[in-house]
Every structure is written in C-alpha cells, then in structure tokens.
Write a structure and sequence with these properties.
9% strand, two-stranded antiparallel sheet, two-stranded antiparallel ribbon, elongated, mainly alpha, 237 residues
C-alpha cells in the first residue's frame, strides 16, 4: 500500500568491524509526495531520525531490520487512525449504526440520509462505492499487518541464530536484551493492529450487506396476486 510504504531493503553486517552496509529502494525513500500528490515524510528522513535515537544499539546487526518494522507499523497506524477508521465511522453514521455502552439507552434515530437510500439511486450507488473502497483498503491493510507479524517473527528467528556471534563481536548482553524487547513490542503491536483492522473489515462487510439489501428492496417487483374464480379458473394480477 502506498499509504504505508512500497520499498525494499537489503543489508550485510560485518561482525569483525561492527559495520552494517544497507541498500534501501522504492517509492518515497527520498520523494516527499505520495501518488495522490499529498506530502509525506520520506522514509529516509524517518529512518535517519530513528537511527539517531538508537545510538546505543548501532553495533547490533538487527537494528536496521527492526527500525524498518517500526517505520512500517508507524505508517500503518497513521493510515488506520487518520484515514481508514474515520471513513468507517462516517459510513456507519450514515447508515444509522448505534453504538453500545454509554449510548445504549439513547433513543434510536434513523438519519435522513438512510431514509433517502430507498429512493435515491445515485446516493446509494455512491455509498456502495465508498463502502467498497474502504473495505478494499481494509483488506489490503490486514495483509500488510500480517506481513509485519511474519517479518517480526523472522527477525526473532535470525536473532536466535546469531546469538553465538554476539559475544565475539563485543555486543553486550544489555544491547541484545534491549533490542529483543523492542522486537517483542513491535510484534505485539502488529498483532493488536491486525485484530483491530479485521474487526473493521467485519463492520464494513455488515454495512455492504445493508446497502445491497436497500438496493434489492428498491428494485424488487411487487408480488403477484392470484385469485380463484367461481368457475374454478385462476386470475393473476
């Protein structure tokens, strides 16, 4: 997803010197506008700032992959709360969704926009397009977050495989523990974000079914009435 980031990353770490050589490529690495023309912070700037705040971990070979995961989750979270979640709430509000909790005792009021759906084909078509767009974005975001989970688990596995090299490379145990904690945190964050996004997907599926039901009610043909005549014949009107 362009809202989260389309970029690739390759790296090599030299245990003898503690240096890491990395190559980052893709959209918005240095370009500060996304495909829609909106401005954004480049990946290079974000990664540079994250590196500057992690000086104590520079010798760790998995610092850059962990920062890459953090950047991905940051942009996923931003897209969820600034764009996708408000969009879902607007759709639900237009279709008359009532929340539980403190509003459970509130009087249910059907909005005028929902009443017009049965009469306004153009409005119903536009709302269907909005629901479909939001649902597609949500499905794509679920896939991105599931990739984040798999990537975090991959970093964990590589970390375990490299444990035997850390002591000889002068990577102190405190550094290893600090990065391990960061990896655990980001994996948990990816799991939580995935669960929330899956819930949003389910909410949108309900709204899409509701819009389709309105469409069927609008275009259904009136039922035919059959009468039995005195002579035994039937008349359908």
């Amino acid at each position: 997803m362009f809202q989260v980031g389309n970029f690739g990353f390759a790296m090599t770490h030299f245990f003898s010197s503690g240096n890491t050589l990395a190559f980052l490529h893709g959209w918005n690495v240095f370009r500060d506008t996304i495909v829609t023309g909106e401005s954004t912070v480049t990946h290079a700037d974000r990664l540079y700032d994250l590196l500057q705040s992690s000086v104590s971990l520079w010798r760790h070979p998995l610092l850059l992959p962990t920062i890459l995961l953090q950047e991905h989750l940051f942009r996923s979270d931003k897209f969820t709360w600034q764009t996708l979640s408000p969009q879902v709430r607007r759709i639900e509000r237009e279709l008359g969704v009532t929340k539980t909790g403190r509003l459970a005792r509130s009087r249910l009021v059907v909005p005028d926009a929902m009443k017009k759906l049965l009469r306004d084909d153009d409005r119903r078509l536009q709302l269907t397009a909005n629901v479909n767009t939001a649902l597609t974005d949500t499905i794509n975001l679920v896939g991105v977050l599931q990739w984040d989970q798999r990537f975090g688990e991959f970093i964990r596995r590589v970390d375990k495989e490299l444990r035997g090299h850390y002591e000889g490379a002068n990577i102190h145990f405190s550094i290893v523990r600090e990065l391990d904690s960061a990896i655990d945190h980001f994996v948990c964050e990816a799991v939580t974000a995935t669960e929330y996004t899956v819930a949003m997907r389910s909410r949108l599926e309900v709204q899409l079914n509701l819009v389709r039901t309105h469409s069927l009610l609008r275009h259904r043909k009136p039922a035919r009435e059959t009468k039995l005549n005195a002579d035994g014949s039937c008349t359908t009107s």
